[in-house]
Amino acid sequence: MELNVLMGHAPARVDDKGRLKVPADFRKLIEEKYGSDCFITSTDGERAMVYPMPVWYDFQARLSKVPSTSIPKAKLQERVNYYGQATTIDQQGRVLIPSILREVAGIVNDVVVLGNTDHLIVWNEERIQKRLSKNPLTPEDMKELELHGV
Length: 150
Hints:
alpha+beta, six-stranded antiparallel sheet, 6 helices, 8 strands, 27% strand, globular
């Protein structure tokens, strides 16, 4: 089965220079569908999000429709720009994770890469395990999702 969206997870590694080796299946889909240019950022400093550049531009276009006086817009822009960096998937399938994200999110050595439809989320393995334990998917969550047809 060939994937059209980024989904599932894969273990990965960040080398000593801060480069993430993008898992092969994710890399193939990103490069075929979007190209090699990416924007890596975070909204919370807990994880890194790897957006193919066309997906990031689409997000920026939607964000540009929010009034410039919007405080939430300003907060979001501060965070994504503080943590963010444009990069390219190199010939070996690696992307450079911004040093600030490596530090605050603990994205070093062994990590977990999650597919999230049109972008990737990179977690420190210990942090994602704690998050999943502390924030279980509840029956109430499922009821809300059912209201949306999920």
